[in-house]
Design brief:
The complex is a heterotetramer of chains A (about 190), B (about 110), C (about 110) and D (about 220). In chain B, about 35% of the residues lie in helices and about 35% in strands. With about 110 residues, chain B is α/β, with parallel strands linked by helices. Chain B has a single domain, classed as Transcription Regulator spoIIAA. Chain C has a single domain, classed as 2-Layer Sandwich (Transcription Regulator spoIIAA). Classes of the chains: A alpha+beta (about 190), B alpha/beta (about 110), C alpha/beta (about 110), D alpha+beta (about 220). The interface between A and D is medium-sized, with 27 and 29 residues.
Chain lengths: ~190, ~110, ~110, ~220
Amino acid sequence: MKQIFGEYAEETVKSKEFLKIGFTPNSTQLQQRWRNNGLSADFLADYLTTFFPIDDNEPSTLQRATELKGAVSYIANELLENSMKFHNPNDDYPITLEVKLYNEHLVLCVTNSISPANLLKFQSIIHDLEHIEPQELYVRQIKQASKNDGNSSGLGLLTIIDDYEAKIGWKFETIQTQKPTEQTLVTTMVQLSI
Amino acid sequence: MDIITEDYSIKYDTETSTIHWQGIMRLNGKEYNPIAELLNEIAALEPSQITLNLQKLEGLNSSGITMLGKFIFKLAKKKTIGLLIQCSKKITWQQKSVKNFQRLMPKLQIEWD
Amino acid sequence: MKIIDKEYSVIYDQATNTVYWSGIMRLNGGQAYEPILQLLNKIAALEPAKITMNLRDLKALNSSGISMLGRFIFSIDRKKNIQLLLLGAKAVPWQQKWAKNFQRLMPALQFEWV
Amino acid sequence: MVKIFGEFNDKELKSREFIKLIFSPSSVPLQQRWRNNSLSADFLADYLMTLFHQDENDPKRLEKQIEIKDTISYIANELLENAMKFNDDSSPYPISIQLHLYDDRLSLCISNSIPAAKVAQFQSFINKLLSTEPQDFYIQQIETAEKDGSISSGLGLLTIIDDYGAKLGWKFENLQLLNEPNYPLYYIKNQMKWLNFWFRVRKWFVARSKNPNITIVTTMVQLAI
């Protein structure tokens, strides 16, 4: 089973460069390993700047590199935080984070397993993102968070679309794992023009 | 006679014949050539002793270790210049790898902070 | 009143009614931000005429943190008796991104950029 | 065909944690992306540090953890420098490095492609490294480097074994055996669809015909912790 939401594009042209990080999501306490989201996001962003050389005589190259680094670091961190929140805690299916570089855009993808309960929650967030104006959704989510002690979700994805002008899409697929059970995987794809 | 970059610096203090190393050096092979040349220039001044202060050199890759090793080996053959290396116990690579320099130059003095 | 951590700090200067933010804040969800929101609410409870938030040294903030700041701004907007000024830095890429959204929560919100 | 040198532990137990980085073959000159080696090595070391149980009241333990962190940073950087330097950039296969954490040890594995013509040279270097006394090897390498005026001395691998007390092993694989050795068996076991299987086989033949002479070498470092 495969389901696509939003702007999800399978690769048709080969990327110029890519970097993929895969890791086990479970055993260390979440609180302690939370730090690794930021660490991984910053690493990815810093790694990418290598492919955007700065020319000292051309201030715009520095600005472009700084902006891109900021955007990739923010977006990758949000995607990883989401994958930690939504991944299936009963499974040790690795979480992967991938960046692919093309001539005019870059793609960030995070894949994680998702439990049936989280699946419904996640798809309702996607539904809101697709059907409600960003401005309205933003105010609505802040108000909602004020009511229930800050437990909002979905603001991360919203800011990715609205603040960073990125395209976003999702792929849900069910795969057979070694165990007798099936596992649902979700891939969130963000496309950013450069 | 100094080499200063964003990641590392090497500064020669003529008065004390001390070379101060600082930062993280993980250069790509031949990139060490200017540094090897600097060391050779200092050796050509024929001071009676040279001190390498590595206490602030936090990282060095094996190409860097080779570059230092070659210099130490050269001084050992020369026999006219004494060599003192100042190290820090807090820096892992020094704890692990500096002892090998002694093999290249038995008279090498090593001082730990 | 201040919160100081290895990665970030939030410090209130009573003399100037300024909250100084610095570092990298990427805490785990709304609950982890609760102590910071409480600090902000305590400051608001003092009813100063104006609160300044100096965010120029805040290098990164995740969406949970943006949400927390948004909640605070929204609560000040409803109060109507406190002015709010945000000091931002153009050099920190994320800061310009949130500005327009915060304005939606509080139309009277003021900004100053360097 | 698979050839093993040194202490290569092919039948790994399930690790407690792992992290893997996969780098695309790159068209950008190595010099421009050289910094990424150090960046990646430090990232792996920092990442590992987070996985350790931290106790601020136990300075001995913290000291040990910092030593492990520095060790991983050094070793991973050496492995990445080598992999990037010696990788056959015409190979379609990416370079990957993975770190596995177990209760009492950890392992680092790095894979890259090398041209068939370089295999023998590398294998004879490995044999020399494994059969020579470390002290002698160290001095020989420095002497040779001094004579040639060269900087690449193969000292990186020696320091990993001798200075950091790690076990080192290598696996050389021809392209034909890449992915899963027992293709049909593997797919039946994993209940993959036959269509998918044939697709993979086709892809494998295409890759093989394009790059008949590529060998993948995996270097494995094992370290007690």
